[in-house]
Design goal:
With 490 residues, this protein is α/β, with parallel strands linked by helices. It has 2 domains: 296 residues, 3-Layer(aba) Sandwich (EreA/ChaN-like  fold); 121 residues, de novo design (two linked rop proteins), CATH 1.20.1440.
Length: 490
């Protein structure tokens, strides 16, 4: 959740766009936008926007894609993708929005097969740790966990609630619960949140645990929690604003001290298989969230980078916890999993999880699968905190990646990027649509296309020609009435 300010050029005139706080779509560039040069690939000459190719070049691109893409109609069509992913120990599954039905269902289909056929151990998502730790306890049949998948998902009360409290997710969580029921405790597949937003929830989880299991650390925990209490219900945002008003003190020392003490006592937290992991991760969140909100004082890429470094560190912590042969599946927005070095993110010094995984974990043979759609519907909000709405996603802009895929006439498709990597028509950036939780379809041409060298950003790509919005639980006042065609499982 960050304020974004980007200087773009419309018809050669600079325009500053400040967007709050759509953290997953933080690049506001389009086919009418000039950007700086990076290795000669991103940018313009003499202030003029790069041409996106003649009609002849466009036709050659479409022909090339038509020759190598595969139609995607059912789960069996995933066979070549599953085979490609089977040699990896870290598979990253993207999405071009947080509110598209097909992204959830196809990721679910891929996830289930990787777990069943290739022994993947856990799913790590772009969500809060405390919320997903409750899901983790439920799917692993821990005592004192929630009684149903619906009950556990209804507790996702941080906006945007539809991102995880939806019936598509319920189908996956329900399946995981059943799958784990036949396995021993050490073999069960878990779910975890990678994100950094849950400052208050993590602090409260620490206090609740220490109260019973390690009272000696209660003074340190109370000092850290007490430091944040003056900022009230707005939590991290109020803390960030207080620093912007130049208050002389921060809570950094308190949370760093608490983390050190918890790590020193970690051997004592063995009340269940994951108690030590949980309390230490909450302490890391408290430390990193304080730093994240502190960084929001400055309008630059630092808060984005802190967030993705936190997610990467959490992923590595989970891999270590699950042992030397651990295999992970990551669910996050394309802006987090698609290698930042292949986009204009590099212009501002931004990194992301996809880049970090490739740089730091090459021995695990990471594979990145991007997702996108040509047109349809999506669930999003008109502004941060606004009620969710079903919004129309217009036809993709001519010349964009989604438009090229649509023009093949194949409908939904699967594409392996190594098939186009040496094709000179795909060496330069192509506009690639990204929709966040805040969306303005009428202004899409100005703000929702990320210049991307697609063959370098992803290892594979799933194109949805016409999408529908995710089925949010909040929509259904009677929770016992399931949406039509539930559970959409393959």
């Amino acid at each position: 959740m960050i304020w974004i300010s980007a200087c773009v050029f419309m018809d050669s005139l600079p325009m500053v766009m400040t967007i709050f706080p759509d953290a997953d779509v933080h690049h506001f560039v389009s086919f009418g936008t000039s950007v700086l040069l990076v290795n000669g690939r991103f940018g313009t000459a003499n202030g003029r926007t790069q041409s996106h190719g003649t009609m002849q070049a466009q036709l050659k691109k479409i022909k090339a894609l038509n020759q190598v893409s595969k139609e995607l109609k059912n789960a069996a069509d995933l066979d070549p993708l599953i085979e490609k992913l089977s040699g990896s120990r870290v598979v990253l599954l993207g999405e071009a929005s947080h509110g598209t039905h097909e992204y959830y269902t196809w990721r679910t289909a891929i996830t289930k097969r990787l777990i069943q056929e290739h022994g993947f151990n856990f799913i790590a998502v772009e969500g809060d740790w405390p919320d997903f730790y409750r899901v983790n306890r439920y799917v692993k049949h821990y005592s004192n966990s929630d009684s149903s998948s619906v009950e556990v998902l209804k507790q996702f009360n941080r906006w945007p609630t539809w991102m995880w409290a939806n019936w598509e997710m319920e189908a996956l969580i329900n399946w995981l619960y059943r799958h784990n029921g036949a396995l021993g405790a050490n073999e069960r597949v878990g779910t975890y949140g990678l994100d950094v937003y849950s400052l208050w929830e993590s602090m409260e989880a620490i206090v609740d645990y220490l109260k019973t299991h390690d009272p000696s650390l209660m003074p340190a925990a109370k000092r850290a929690l007490g430091c944040f209490e003056p900022f009230g219900d707005e939590k991290g945002m109020a803390y960030a604003r207080s620093l912007q008003r130049y208050l002389p003190t921060t809570c950094e020392n308190e949370v760093v001290h608490l983390l050190k003490e918890i790590k020193r006592h970690a051997d004592h937290y063995n009340t269940d298989l994951e108690a030590s992991l949980n309390i230490e991760q909450n302490a890391h969140i408290a430390k990193n969230a304080e730093q994240y909100y502190r960084s929001m004082v400055h309008v630059n890429q630092s808060s984005w980078n802190l967030r993705d470094h936190h997610m990467m560190d959490t992923l590595k912590r989970l891999l270590y916890f699950h042992g030397p042969d651990a295999k992970a599946i990551v669910w996050a927005h394309n802006t987090h999993v698609g290698d930042a070095r292949a986009t204009d993110m590099a212009l501002e010094g931004s990194i992301n999880v996809g880049q970090l995984v490739r740089e730091q974990l090459p021995d695990l043979r990471p594979q990145i699968v991007g997702f996108g759609s040509y047109q349809g519907m999506v669930v999003a909000g008109a502004e941060w905190g606004a009620p969710m709405r079903q919004m129309k996603v217009p036809e993709a802009m001519p010349g964009s990646w989604e438009h090229l895929m649509h023009q093949t006439g194949k409908g939904d498709q699967l594409l392996f990027m190594d098939r186009i990597k040496d094709n000179p028509f795909f060496e330069l950036p192509i506009g690639h649509r990204a929709i966040g939780v805040v969306y303005h379809p009428q202004h899409e041409r100005r703000g929702n296309y990320v210049p991307s060298v697609m063959a370098e950003r992803y290892d594979a790509f799933i194109h949805i020609d016409r999408s529908e919005g995710v089925h949010a639980m909040k929509v259904y006042l009677d929770r016992t009435q399931l949406p039509e065609t539930y559970p959409w499982a393959f």
